Every structure is written in C-alpha cells, then in structure tokens.
Amino acid sequence: MYSSLQGKTVIVTGGSKGIGKGIARVFARHGANVAVVARNLGAAQACAVELNCENAKVVAFQGDVQNRDSMKAVVKEVHETFGGIDVLCANAGIFPSASLETMTNEDWDTVMNTNAKGTFHAVQACIPYLKQAEYGRIVITSSITGPVTGYPGWSHYAASKAAQLGFMRTAALELAGEQITVNAVLPGNVLTEGLEGLGDDYLEEMASAIPMKKLGTVEDIGYAALFLATKEAGFITGQSIIVDGGQILPEN
C-alpha cells in the first residue's frame, strides 16, 4: 500500500462513472481524500456516497471541463473544502461515434472541447494549488486509440487523445521546476457501465482481441494512475503507461 497518498487531496474529473469512478475508488481505498467532479451533481453525489470509507473522505462537486470559469470555480471550492490540492486526475472525456463522411463541425468541436481543451482547463485551474503542495501530480486519462491505434468512427476522439499526449509533454517541461509531474494512462478495452448493456457476445468479441483474453477493469486504470500520483513516482514525468492486457502487441 502506498502510504504517501494518505491524507492527500485528489481531484478526479469525470469521476462519477466509468474509469473516473474506478480511479476515485482506488485513491479512496489508499487513504486519499477525493473530489469527484462531474457535470451531473446528482451522479457525483451518488458516487461520493458509495465510495466514502473509513480511510478517506469523498465529496461531490459540479463542474464542466469545457468551461474555463467553471473549472476555476470548482477547483477553488475543492481547495476551500479540503485545505489543499495534491493530485489532479484529468479524466473527463466523451467518445461518440461518427464517420468522416457524416461528421459535423459540431461533432468535432464537442469532442475536442471536452477531451483536449477540457484537459487544459482542468490543469490550468489546478496549477496554482499544486504549486503549494508538498509535491504535485497530474495524471491524464488518454487512450490507446489515437496515440497508438485507430478505430473507425473515432477520428475526432483519436485526434483528441493524441492531442492530450502532446499537451502532456510540454506541460511536464513547464511544471518540472515546480516539482509537479505530468503523466498519462492509456487504457485499452475496459469494462464500464456503457459496455455492460451491449451483450455477452459483444463483450466476448472485444475480449478475444486481447492476448490476456479478458477486458480490463476500471480499477486496473485506477492503480496505474495511483502509482503515477505517489511520492515514489516523483522522478517520472512526461511519460505514458499503456494498460491494455497486451492489446496493441499482435502484428495482425
């Protein structure tokens, strides 16, 4: 168990469900206080009630990563609630599907504004508070889609996830002098609420593409983020960890 996170404050954007909820759960289990940030306050509150435990305090906050002022306001509120901010898990993201031939400017802009610009807004809002921390950590949830692989219907999503890694590397350089690290986790096929309703046949087909023959869990991503947020990982910055059960390894 990483004791260096006990009592630290972690913001998880898009934290009310899916991978974000898994990240929040793992940090809470390891004694960190967690701010679950989501556009839907009711969903964030339900998540906070579920994840609260003896070792940590989990609190819900409403914020929209697409809106710079919203993120500045919610980050300030988190700071006032917990007395500091140590870790940002910039996880909020969307993945609608649209072919190149049918995609509209609005489709493109919505995905980029949430996934890429939303990461920028969250990071920028947290920087003043991370500078005050004993050590600051930023962990971005990217994807294998875009930085490593492609998938039909996700050209806008892939572009946004690749953009996150370009942003990460330069942010890591700018913040290194402040002892703030910036890294990313790249999930492969992970079982979330959105996939559970697609049926066993679909899930089995997805799992068959993975050498380990199983889908990842949201906690698998959470533990990778947890490691990058620890004091022990303090000499790692500007890097990405692929968590995919070997999905990208086969040649065909």
Automatic annotation (TrEMBL):
Record Pfam families: adh_short_C2
E.C. designation(s): 1.1.1.100
Keywords: Oxidoreductase
InterPro entries linked: KR_dom, NAD(P)-bd_dom_sf, SDR_fam
A GO BP annotation: bile acid metabolic process
SUPFAM superfamilies: NAD(P)-binding Rossmann-fold domains (SSF51735)
Domain Ketoreductase: start-end pairs: 8-201
GO molecular function annotations of the record: 3-oxoacyl-[acyl-carrier-protein] reductase (NADPH) activity; quinone binding
Enzyme class name: oxidoreductase
Family designation: Belongs to the short-chain dehydrogenases/reductases (SDR) family.
The protein, known as: 3-oxoacyl-ACP reductase FabG
UniProt organism field: Neobacillus citreus
